[in-house]
Amino acid sequence: MMIERFEEITTEEQTAVAEHDHTVKVCVAAGCLSSQSDQVLDALKNGVGEHRGCHVKGVGCMGLCSQGPLVAVESKTGAKSGSVMYQNVKAEDAPDIIQSLGKKPVARLELKTNVPFFQRQTKIVLENCGEIDPERIEEYIAVEGYQGLLTAVTELSPIEVIDEIVRSGLRGRGGGGYPTGLKWTTVAKMDGPTKYVICNADEGDPGAFMDRSVLESDPHRVLEGMAIAGYAVGATEGYIYVRGEYPLAVERLKIAIRQANRLGVLGSKVCGTTFDFNVHIRLGAGAFVCGEETALIASIEGKRGTPRPRPPYPAEYGLWGKPTLINNVETFANVPAIVRKGGAWYAGIGTEKSKGTKVFALAGSIQNTGLIEVPMGMSLREIIFEIGGGVPNGNCKAVQTGGPSGGCIPADYFDTPVDYESLKALGSIMGSGGMIIMDDSSSMVDVARYFMEFCMTESCGKCVPCRVGTVHMHTLLNKIYKGEARRHDLETLEKLCDLVMNTSLCGLGQTAPNPVLSTLRYFRHEYMDLLVDGAEDGRGATAVDAQLLEAQS
Amino acid sequence: MKRQTQARIITLKIDGVDVAAREHETILELAQENNIFIPTLCHLDGLSEYGGCRICVVEVKGSNRLFPACMTPATEGMEVITNSERLRLYRFSILDMLFSERNHVCSVCVSNGHCDLQYLSAKLGMTRVEVPYLNPKVDVDASHEHFIMDHNRCILCQRCVRVCGEIEGAFTKGVMGRGVNTRIIHDLNGAWGDSDTCTSCGKCVNVCPTGALVEKGKSAGEMVKRRDWLPYLRLMQED
Hints:
The structure holds 2 protein chains of 2 kinds.
Chain A: H1 2-19, E1 22-27, H2 30-33, H3 37-47, E2 54-59, E3 71-75, E4 82-86, H4 94-100, E5 110-111, H5 116-119, H6 137-142, H7 147-155, H8 158-168, H9 180-189, E6 196-201, H10 210-217, H11 219-233, E7 237-243, H12 247-263, E8 278-284, H13 293-300, E9 324-328, H14 329-341, H15 343-347, E10 357-364, E11 370-375, H16 380-387, E12 396-401, E13 407-410, H17 420-425, E14 434-439, H18 444-458, H19 464-481, H20 487-503, H21 507-511, H22 514-522, H23 524-530, H24 546-552
Parallel strand pairs in A: 1-2, 6-7, 6-9, 7-8, 10-14
Antiparallel strand pairs in A: 1-3, 3-4, 4-5, 10-11, 12-13, 12-14
Helix pairs in contact in A: 3-4, 7-11, 7-14, 8-9, 8-11, 10-11, 10-12, 11-14, 18-19, 19-20, 22-23
Chain B: E1 9-14, E2 17-22, H1 27-33, E3 57-60, E4 66-68, E5 79-81, H2 85-101, H3 116-124, E6 140-141, E7 147-150, H4 159-168, E8 173-176, E9 183-186, H5 203-207, E10 213-215, H6 233-238
């Protein structure tokens, strides 16, 4: 029986932990690895060779990526029991850390954890990130992992599982905010027998790294979510579409799938029941548009990754024409906790229409760059100034949310609660969770130009407005930024925004004008200042061509 | 209960005209049946729908969104508008995009006078292009014995790609690159003349709406595409 096996593993793990007085955790997610945390891990492992009662392990992301490599020490005995965190650790610091075990912590490396960055977060998706070794299924099981799946397949009917998700009020975390329960119901109602579950891990927004961190830090959580989804909608095959730029995430997913298959929580006869669920990995080849669900499906099928008009939605006609459930990494990562603790518990967190928590990646001009998870409804001000620690130099000007499909929200609106509806009302979107903070030195025209360039190069070329419209918009933004444009150019730009937004085929084109529209809405003066004839008297403030204008009159 | 196999019949309004339809029929099919004009470029009867040119977008009452007529199935009680002022302006803009994207110089084009793009702009009453031309440098592939692929005139409607794969079954034509750098290619981006898979059937040339695919030896305005066999496309696919 699977439940006894789980208990056995949990006991083994707890005994192992009990044997050690100190546990040293080193972050081995991509952020810290890029500053050589692997060397820190090796140095610590070699160093503790003679130090009994100490266990060194690699764990997932601890959140504060800007201070990496991060090391956390948990001690049960000695002068300082409890946990200590160290920042910017180098391999040379390993002896000092080992020396300090059970004594006073190394002061020069210590990172204070009683700050809002750690205190104000509510962790559901990230609860195991930075706690467990992502490459060992035993550690995941010891923290109640795969309990949700076991409960679902042995005690609940598929309809009861879906009910739990509906009750939780969970909405799609990929950006759209479509009710997850409704999506599951739709797929469950479609005729079988062949259905598919797809996990969208093609995270492409500039400055966003939530999905990568979850996959690198807690891959089993996503697999568990997918398997529960498969059971609920009646699918036996699952695909994870990961972008090829995430080799570490792919590596850890492969290990996780192998371990889960061996233990019997995935593959044929999941947890000893009659339910089969196999998970396959598919790699993206670097196209942003493949994050769009219909393009993603085409890409898995081996075709050119271009979107097609919906309806029919994938729930009806998806992978190889079969009903397909497609959710984002973070959505799946929420599922195990919901099944384990109940939908009502989840619905108790967040706002009326946006339940639960959301993971955000803080980037740009901010003190604490990193990964955070907060309840829905927290204000932008709290996120940026309290958790994020504010802007290091100068004033905070705006925050860009939702990547190339989102918009810029000026500092005046920072008291807005973060939920799907409020951000939409401000002309931005929740998006997948990237937050880029900009200070006084950023030109909003430049920001709009950057995102337009991104959309232009990432347009798949299928539909005319997006393929050509983005090029014209980029040319115009360039012209404005260089101070060579006139008022009629701005009018043309606005007209093109309207065209591309309304006539494009997929979400990429339909939302491509958003960065321009939102900066025009809140920072129109910046555009006007750059126009040759922008100011009221017919002269631009920057007036590159002021003399020219004079010569003409 | 036995499942219904007969398609349900529904009724809807297109431009105020009541029309009856089988479920799953598209708005475009219905409009054509009822002699209501909706401009199209990438659509061709008998080929799979592509939905890329966006010229056939229509409005549906009660929704702010625009729908491509070629791929939107009719639904009961739907009220479709095919010719509002808003749509007229969007269609002009889409033609602007197409004309500005590559080098469409009608006066020297072999398809002058026999071109779907040219015909459509005249029919819609287009008089000028409101955005600057991009004037890209693109190639002409004249390596094939009988045909020429002139990328200057290509609007990427992919009729040639679809007819090559779906009807001829040769899969010679494909697509490469993205955004404005998208190009129609032959096999693995080799010269057309070197293609082992091309059967030289000429279907791609005759379905091409512009002067992008033409026969060799034609001078300006001489390339008249043979369209008499197009009604059989649907039959060919059914076989």
